[in-house]
Write a structure and sequence with these properties.
Length: about 350
């Protein structure tokens, strides 16, 4: 599974259009609104921020990977300012193959300032797909052009968007200053600058996932900044993202490339099931599981310790996890999305054990 995050409604609309048929998904206890697309690379789940900025992006990404534990990599897709000194023009696409520079995370002294931390590395999984697209372009092909048909009411990009590869800057500044833009470019070699990539990449890394930033150029971050190119730039970024997803191998989200599912991963899936989220609901589950399991499970008001104990005890029985799955299906319904996710996780966990 691949996750994609957008910041603005115009970005979300362009992305959903490029992905094709999508279905809305809600997860209990998660304030994010999700949309799911089923592609050859596997399920692609997207969400959009309630407001712009790295803090909001980090929070959204944390919810995303918690609610969908199978996500391996996250793409931050949307618009950004381009640096004209690097030849980047309106409507072009910048891919963060050299990572994300969190330029506003700094150490400041009387002698000056310097960056804290390192450039946030791009996803190895997605970089392989990027390289496939680069090879195709060298052969005279541009796979992303297939997906450039804009959403009705959206202006198409003028001409053919070019694709640039390099570092993308991310900070908490809405730039309308050519001097500040060029200062950052000279210091860090950025091709584009935006406000959500660092939060997304940091949150993905902390959650054990990979990240790549893809941006369409909508302005130059100077005094002439306006919204005129938001829609064409969002369309270009969404088209490239769709081509990138198509370049992933069909088994990119499969068990062969996923890390082994741990017991804690299984517990994270269990936490999304309504019945298992409350002490009363867990008591109902234990009653149906029978005294052999119920008598050994440690009860707790806190959800995770209680579910970790339940999972450990069920794991010790040859049919324990299967019995748990059947009880949850009986109480919450077989078709509930969290229940289906649990069934898939139990199947994967048992297959690797």
């Amino acid at each position: 599974m691949i996750g994609v995050i957008t910041a603005l409604p115009v970005e979300a609309a362009a992305l959903q259009h490029a992905l094709g048929p999508v279905e809305p998904v809600r997860v209990d206890g998660d304030g994010n609104h999700y949309v799911l697309a089923r592609l050859a690379c596997g399920d692609v789940v997207t969400t959009s921020l309630a407001a712009t900025g790295n803090v909001m992006a980090a929070e959204a990404c944390a919810h995303l990977v918690r609610s969908f534990p199978r996500i391996r990599a996250v793409i931050m897709c949307g618009i950004a300012l381009g640096v004209p000194r690097r030849g980047v023009r309106l409507g072009d696409v910048v891919v963060g193959t050299d990572g994300v520079v969190h330029y506003s995370h700094r150490r400041v002294t009387d002698a000056g300032s310097s960056l804290r931390g390192h450039t946030l590395a791009p996803s190895p999984l997605l970089l392989r797909a990027v390289n496939d697209l680069r090879v195709a372009e060298l052969r005279g092909e541009k796979p992303w052009e297939r997906w450039l048909t804009p959403l009705p009411g959206f202006e198409p990009p003028e001409g053919e968007p070019r694709v640039f590869h390099g570092a993308i800057g991310s900070g908490d500044e809405l730039l309308r200053s050519a001097a500040r833009r060029d200062e950052l470019e000279l210091a860090h070699g950025m091709l584009a600058i935006e406000m959500e990539g660092a939060g997304t990449a940091s949150s993905a890394w902390l959650g054990g996932r990979e990240c790549l930033v893809v941006r369409g150029v909508s302005d130059y971050g100077d005094a002439a900044k306006n919204d005129d190119w938001h829609r064409p730039a969002a369309t270009a970024a969404a088209a490239y993202t769709r081509a990138l997803l198509e370049a992933l191998p069909p088994d990119a989200a499969g068990a062969r490339e996923r890390p082994p599912l741990s017991l804690l991963d299984l517990v994270e899936v269990m936490e999304q099931v309504s019945t298992l989220r409350t002490p009363a609901g867990r008591d109902d589950v234990l009653l149906l599981l029978g005294p052999d399991i119920a008598g050994r499970v440690r009860r707790a008001d806190s959800t995770r310790p209680a579910l970790l104990s339940l999972a450990k005890v069920c794991e010790e029985y040859p049919d324990g996890l299967r019995r748990l799955q059947e009880v949850v299906e009986r109480l919450d319904g077989r078709d509930a999305r969290p229940v289906r996710a649990l069934a898939a996780a139990v199947e994967d966990y048992r297959a690797q054990s």
